[in-house]
Amino acid sequence: MRIVLLGSGNVATQLALALKAIGEEIVQVYSPNLVNAEALARLVEAVAINNLSQVEQQADLYIISVKDDAIGDVAKGLNGVSGLVVHTSGTTDISILSGQVKRAGVFYPLQTFSKGRNVSFKHIPLCLEAEEQDLILLQQLADKLSSKVYELDGEKRKVLHLAAVFACNFPNHLYALANQILQQHNLDFDIVRPLIAETADKVMVNLPDNVQTGPAIRGDERTMDKHLTMLSNLPELQEIYQTLSNSIKITHK
Amino acid sequence: MRIVLLGSGNVATQLALALKAIGEEIVQVYSPNLVNAEALARLVEAVAINNLSQVEQQADLYIISVKDDAIGDVAKGLNGVSGLVVHTSGTTDISILSGQVKRAGVFYPLQTFSKGRNVSFKHIPLCLEAEEQDLILLQQLADKLSSKVYELDGEKRKVLHLAAVFACNFPNHLYALANQILQQHNLDFDIVRPLIAETADKVMVNLPDNVQTGPAIRGDERTMDKHLTMLSNLPELQEIYQTLSNSIKITHK
């Protein structure tokens, strides 16, 4: 498959490397910033471009992997192509493309991508949306990348993206707050790392409701009061502690 | 070392198995409920007792691993022994023991223990507190169990316990809320498991502040508004979404 990649951020980079690794041909990498386009193009032996008028018109697949706000503008620049055009966004409707291009789809990898951290696509859920033949095309590609391929419509994809904020972005921020508490007392973050690993590991085989631990689920008001007192110099954390503890109590009552 | 274990819950069970595995001798397991004492005693070839008057007086170490509220009462029953008496609680002061027994200490394993899930003590941080010779004794035992042994006073141990609520109990509850959102739309929890694993894995080598992702840190108000609208039938989750998103924005501004 001859692929044009539009974007050069974390998702675009990881996806480009994964596609290259399974033997797909990335013909061009587009970014409005040519330096960024070149950096990624070099990694996957593609041609770097920074103007949508330069886009190769005969590719099989165009992957738009840019900030949500910019998808529409990039799609406009692809209105002449006959290949399939997909975006990689969890929250953006497929209609942002289908108004602009002949064949539209979505190729949403459900994962958290950070600069400088390579991820294996093998176990990344890939969520696809497209019409009939194009869906088959995307499925064939996705199956080569990952063992977890889902067909999801736009509504379900948006629900999944929302759930991902609760499953990933918020837990990571709570790790950061734990670190803030530790630092205030000259304790190293390293001491809670095994706990974080085990907490995530437990829900690989259990549902989280079945393995909840801690003072809130035990109804241990004394410990919770002590904790709230300890947080009196961090009112923002105190509020979070209260809100989440109440939610645990409500869920398990 | 001849050890008497007082308690038969999750922590007591995992600790007993780990101690047995490194060749320590557990002479007795105490629980007010004899059936519980017997179940654990059988696993580690100990004698089950349900009355503190039956406690062997000549053991080297007495480990009190019961609910925080019950530690004081159990300690009272040990006031004749000359061996070292420790509790395993993160939030309880050593003084609850030192008022009752000659030699007091703390042996706090920082981990989340759930029924039916065996954990390896190899990488569990063990947090110790005791006076001189007794501290050395605990360190020797702890070093055999784990590669992560810390000496921490009561204040730091309590801070650590509070941080653990943020690093473990709250993230697990957020996994549960993610599942609640998914279930409402007939999506399986399995789809977010790789994301949870990667989120935890990332902070094994990074600090969480450096790998935060999601709409809040991007300042993506449009996506956050969409998410809040989607949560309008779950006001409790809406509040949590708002509180944590604000906290991410404040932390990273």
TrEMBL record, chains A, B:
Source species taxonomy: Bacteria, Pseudomonadati, Bacteroidota, Sphingobacteriia, Sphingobacteriales
SUPFAM superfamilies the UniProt entry points to: 6-phosphogluconate dehydrogenase C-terminal domain-like (SSF48179), NAD(P)-binding Rossmann-fold domains (SSF51735)
Domain DUF2520: 124-247
PANTHER family attached to this UniProt entry: CONSERVED HYPOTHETICAL ALANINE AND LEUCINE RICH PROTEIN (PTHR40459:SF1)
Stated name of the protein: Predicted oxidoreductase, contains short-chain dehydrogenase (SDR) and DUF2520 domains
Domain Pyrroline-5-carboxylate reductase catalytic N-terminal: 2-79
Organism of this sequence: Pedobacter rhizosphaerae
Domain of life: Bacteria
Any Pfam family matching the protein: DUF2520
